[in-house]
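Quick board copy: two proteins, each given as sequence then tokens.
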Amino acid sequence: MLAEDSADSREPSANPILAAVGAPAAPSGPQNRKRKRAAPPTASSPAPSDPGSTTNPPEVLSSRVDLSSRPQLSISRGPTFVSASEGSEYFKTDLIGVNRVGFRYVPAGINPPGCALPCRTIESNPTTYRVSWEDRSPFVTVTKDGLGIHGTTGFRSARCNAPMAEGKWYMEVKILRGGGEHHSENNRREGSHVRLGWGRREAPLNGPVGLDGYSYGYRDKTGDKVTLSRPRPYGRPFGTGDVIGMYISLPPRRSASAKDPHDPAHLKRERIPIELKGQEMFEILEYPQSKEMTALMDYSGKSTSSASVPSAPKKASAGKIPERSGPSTTSKPNVIPLRPLPVLQGSRIAFFLNGESQGVAYQDLYDYLQLRQTETQRKKEKKRTREGVKEHRENPFNDGWLGYYPFISVFNDAIVRMNPGPDFEFPPPNDIDALLDGTPPSCVEEDTKPARTWRPASERYAEFMAEQWALDAIEEAEAKEDAIRLAANEKAEAAKKAEREKKKQAAEARKRAKLAAVAEAQQALRGTPASVDDERSTPGLSTLMGPGQPSPLRHGTTYQGHVYGSVENGYSYSPAPTSASVGEVQGGQSEYNSEMETENIVVEAPTPSPVPAFEA
């Protein structure tokens, strides 16, 4: 396969999830664990997922008080099995949330008192490697042990309950009905068919494995291998009664860079606990398909921005004469270049038919980690986040569920049965890679015969659940640290508020003292002792002119150089004020409507009247 090499090298290491207990998971932005959940999140929840359901929307579990009366379960209540038909051993499942419409569901249990988080991850019966109750199409029925799968309509798929993230894994699938066989109880034109393979989280469940670049399949009808919906010759066809061995080899998981906060290998979960059909569940926004992977499906060959995108040959013009037009003045729109698609160097997938190797089907698989977010995507996600609201957001990091899953697709009435091991009907050799590489068995000495290099898929379930519980412990520790930090911030904010209140009261006391001093000084100028209550009043005219206070006009009605009734130059000077002075006294100097300070009051002397006096 043509694909861009991964820029990050993978080094063998211990399980990074289990080793991360007590260490920080993903250096993401601050998470407010005390945030309230909005009743209608931005991305509306599709639950309940049953077609045509009219049940009320699920309740968001956000308060420890609301959960005190709920039982603390370690095993999920569901599922409840509903027979697909009378007497059938295949069932539909109820009391669970089936993954669909871009959401997925994981059983949740109530945490005991004293925990910072309300819920934790729990298991569902049976606690073995099997088909996931939640991660399958609703049109796929199953047996109660989760190993038998029955189709009912066109191609529908199911994933198992734990992904393969590193190492070498093997399992078997027996075809009970397939290869085009017709079921006697229906008259469909097409018979029953099966496709088997491995797929990522983004691979859709309403189509067959190999539909896009997120999954790699092996089809029964022709024996072709299929990915990107493009069949290629591979092995022998298979049908009813055959046993298909599925082998996958993945390099060690890459450890996240501590210096790179945007490294997609960081571990971080985005999930909201809800109540769905009487069962606590985690609702998670499913990883979306990227435009780079979608571009791989483009057969026109227009997408050439990435080396991972195969280009189609240019079609001939078929004799058409090109149009003669002037130079184009329209500028090309800004096309965002596609990001390179990293691959898992050395990874491979192979299939066995009744114990016979069909060879390597795929090599250097696409990396299951998310592509690094662009700066524009990060800004858009940050802008959409609202303070105080818990809502679904796309997760650019690994939430522990990324990897390659056994992916089983059934068409019409096809029936298969899984065998995750450890006992197989056709056990493969101890070193499958040596067989695939063409190393003859005779070249290996009996004394140096290698130990088994692969593991049965049945061992993956317990390991995967240990990883999930380790992430639970990390999140609980982070939540407690956030609670302590929040309490410290609230205490510091309360101290700052008290200090501000204290300063405000001191300022008000100084202001009252200043006003009292001004009032006392003004009262002293008039020979009247200041009252104790004067500090609560303003030193204006309305304060100074209370009942019994002398009018300030008596300080301004002196007439120097004149005597009432005297005559100078034939005129008698009257003490009566002029109209202008009357207006000033009545309007500008009124004791009842003036707010001026007493020291600013100026009462002018009346102007002598020029009217001549009458002589006796």
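And the next:
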Amino acid sequence: MMWLLLCVWTVATLILSNTGYVRCDTNGGHTCMACTIILSLAEQNAEIHNETVVHGLERLCNVLPVLYREPCQGFLSVATPVLQRILFEDVFTPDVGCHALGFCYTEAGTAECNLHPRPRHGIRGAIKRAYPDPMTWNIHQQKVANFQSGVCDLLPGLKGFCQLIEQKLETHLPVVDVDGDRFSTIQTLRGTNFRGRDCSDARDDIYPGRRPIDGDRIQDSNCNGIYGTDKISGKSYEELFCSDVPNYGVVVLGDSAAAHFHLPKEWFSAVGMTLSSFEAAPMIIANEIDLPQLSAVTGYKNSSLVRPWWTDSVYLRLRETNRCNHRDYQNIGVNGAESASMNNTIQYTMARNRTTDNPLLVFYSLIGNDVCNGHVDTIHGMTLPEDMKRRFTSTLEYLDTKLPKGSHVVATGLADGRILYNTLKDKIHPLGDWRQDLTYPEVYSFLNCLQVSPCAGWMTTNGTLRNFTSERAANLSLAVKQVTKSFRAKNFDVHYIDYDIKKIQNQWVADGGKASDLIEPVDGFHPSQVSNFLFASYFWKEANRLFPGAFPRNPHNADIERIFGDQGGY
């Protein structure tokens, strides 16, 4: 368990730090956070099963996939002496345990961070009681440090993966892409979960979204599963079925919300954890902890990962309207993306040829990171309206060099993140499920102390700061809206829509849902699967309002399904 979550947060931190999302942390940062989570779960497991914390930690190791059990048990062998000493002196809390192990510490000039109530004599005092001889404590700490010096080195088979991720992080392109056309044949590592599946990884002129080569009489060149010739008319099926209505692909240029960042609740609740909880861990890690295949813009499948909810998306609506659009989607959502990183690097990873490909429906959706960071001085790190205008204008100028004529761009505003605290302030975090004792504000405060919060401006008990952050977000939304009104492109039209999650939430509650259903339960920050499902409908309705008649129903859909079935799937 320790090593799995440390791996998750190591990869997450690596991903986020390369996008500007995490610029610094303190007092152990993400490693301290991961350790505290694990020991919290171990302690609760011990209570549930009437055993020691060490046995509770061992129980967590045993629910991991086989690949991770051995290094987890190896860690136990070096951590057990430290934990047993603290337990013997009756001074254990998860915070004390992680400080004693060396994952957490207090840097000079910073406050001591704790998730749980402090011991009577403080964390440092508790450790001194367990280790009156500092030399013994240092020796034990060094053994732990030697064992955990590199998570990627310790997990079998993970070192190469981590090195590959490091090499590819700044490109945000598929790791497996032999022909270099920016489409892949595997699901993870920025593959088909993010972009439509390539039907030939040996030819760079065959990929989703292109106009067919010679009507695709011989080979499927645009990967929509429609090819061959009708024997009666002599026409290609592409000509028969796909030439009467315009064909469109869909792209989202966005952040972690667009990519659908998701950590399973079962990983963080001692009550809900089972042997099957971690079966999807390799896929989740290889997907950068995102679920783009279930997202509001590019989702294409249902999944038990987010049961009991379903997937709806703009892509599925486009495909339902015209099955010739099959597989033509790209999720260019990047964890931590904001207007600067989008303009500097991320936008260039979109695949489209202005002369050979079909037009696109593009969503530009950066809903928070221009006001969100984990800094103590979070206001200083927020984007200014004039910078937002300049960067968004530059992105539109680039898109005008890439998008085929007849494309459309929809830009969303930022969210009003006050919905997070207002919705969750009295709720119990999954880490507190067993005892019903850990609230979201307590988790927010812990993350802020470590400077690892996704959004110190909204995930805080400081109401004045929350209001300021929302005011800045509204100003940035206005800047985006003003650019959409003034910008004139040669190849597309551009419009603005609000990212009105509060309106969506109100409607959901009116229909009988719970307000908290719309927020990811683990991080208390990202839109949930329910949100993605509801926003898909909102985005689609807005696109049809803004571009009336652009997406007519293909009268040949039934013929396509009759002849080509699922068109090769995904």
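Board note added afterward: Residues 8-23 have pLDDT under 50 and may be disordered.
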